[in-house]
Write a structure and sequence with these properties.
By secondary structure, this protein is an alpha/beta fold. It has 14 helices and nine strands. It has helices at 2-19, 26-44, 50-64, 77-87, 92-110, 132-143, 159-162, 175-183, 202-216, 252-256, 268-286, 301-305, 315-333, 347-350; strands at residues 121-125, 147-151, 189-193, 224-225, 232-233, 239-244, 258-262, 294-296, 340-342. The strands form three sheets. The protein has a five-stranded parallel sheet, sandwiched between helices. A two-stranded antiparallel ribbon has the order 4-5. Strand 4 (224-225) and strand 5 (232-233) form a beta hairpin. The longest helix has 19 residues, at 26-44. The model has no long low-confidence stretch (mean pLDDT 84).
């Protein structure tokens, strides 16, 4: 009896979730309610088969989709410029392109026109570590939207985007549905990261490119059909941003839908400013170090920035600074020192091996 009571309690929770899902289409809501009634009949008969878990999970996922919830866009170009300057040093031409792109979005929205469908998809192209993901995050922050990243690298099946039918073993929704549930809104910024690495198989890659064209095309994505959901899903309010290390494997049809922005590599002088003024304060705080417990000789920064040769991005630079801070934190905790002043003589000791 305790098990049956627990099952009925779970069904009541599911029913409340379905009835409390704002904006869910009426026909879909009716379909879910019929499923719940079916589960109740199964529970009354004592049938707790795999189908019970399959249907209850489906209802839970569909009810979790943000059918109506959305964030209000912040239409302030000056705020956008301030945020980009705050989070990104240099890259003036890139930032100006982003500002122009956002300006078009803002102007269309202020004039009551459909903005997303009229603007091309941003494609950020550059080597690893040059800031493509952080720039996409800044676009989301500028508009006041939620941000979700979908890693496209190594996708082994179109079902990872389309979802697997609930009738199949290991059924689950596709990455787009998962992204909307994670964001909790129907109008987030979704980064499709490293789209050129979607698959190493030529045939599969062309299939994935075709699906992506459907996802990114405003004339098609209003009725995107996920196999698991088996119901049209409106993606037209999502702002998609794509990134790639290169454009070699991206289809011509997909390239035609996107606006390419090339991300330049950082110079050593730019890296010094980024390391000293942007990265170091954050890493010091994450490491638990107080101001003054680690200081770096001003003319030593070139040796910190390029300890192992040239690197186009700043990812390895961040790891270098983290390693230095961790070693200093360790020495302070062990009582070996109270503060460290990094010089040419002791730099090698603190650099990662």
């Amino acid at each position: 009896m305790a098990t049956k009571d627990f099952v009925f309690e779970e069904l009541k929770t599911l029913s409340d979730k379905v009835s409390g899902a704002p904006g869910m289409p009426e026909d879909l809501q009716e379909k879910l309610n019929q499923m719940i009634q079916r589960l109740e009949r199964m529970a009354n008969m004592g049938h707790y088969a795999a189908e019970f878990d399959t249907l209850s999970r489906y209802i839970e996922i569909v009810a979790s989709i943000p059918w109506e919830e959305r964030t209000e866009d912040l239409l302030d170009i000056n705020r956008a410029r301030e945020l980009l300057e705050k989070h990104h040093y240099g890259m003036q031409s890139v930032k100006e392109r982003i500002i122009e792109y956002l300006a078009s979005l803002i102007l269309l929205k202020k004039r009551g026109k459909e903005a997303i469908s009229r603007t091309p998809i941003l494609l950020l192209v550059g080597l690893q570590g040059v800031g493509k993901t952080t720039l996409a995050i800044s676009v989301a922050e500028t508009l006041g939207r939620k941000f979700v990243r979908i890693a496209m690298g190594g996708i082994g099946s179109t079902l990872e985007l389309r979802g697997k039918s609930k009738a199949l073993p290991n059924a689950e929704p596709g990455q787009l549905v998962k992204a909307l549930i994670k964001a909790g809104t129907r109008n987030p910024v979704i980064l499709l990261d490293e789209i050129e690495k979607a698959s190493g198989e030529k045939g599969l890659l062309s299939d994935i490119m075709a699906i992506m064209l459907e996802i990114l095309d405003p004339s098609q994505n209003k009725t995107f059909r996920d196999h698991y959901l088996d119901y049209p899903l409106d993606l037209s309010e999502v702002l998609f941003v794509c990134s790639a290390n290169n454009t070699g494997t991206i289809s011509a049809a997909l390239m035609d839908r996107m606006e390419l922005i090339k991300m330049p590599s950082y110079t050593d002088n730019e890296k010094i400013v980024i390391a000293r003024d942007y990265l170091m304060p954050q890493i010091l705080e994450r490491s638990g170090l107080e101001p003054g417990e680690l200081e770096i000789q001003p003319d030593l920064w070139p040796g910190v920035v390029r300890p192992f040769g040239y690197d186009s991005g700043i990812r390895s630079l961040g790891r270098t600074l983290e390693s230095i801070c961790r070693k200093v934190a360790k020495e302070i905790v062990e009582g070996k020192t109270q503060r460290v002043y990094l010089t040419e003589e002791n730099l090698k000791h603190y650099l990662p091996q």
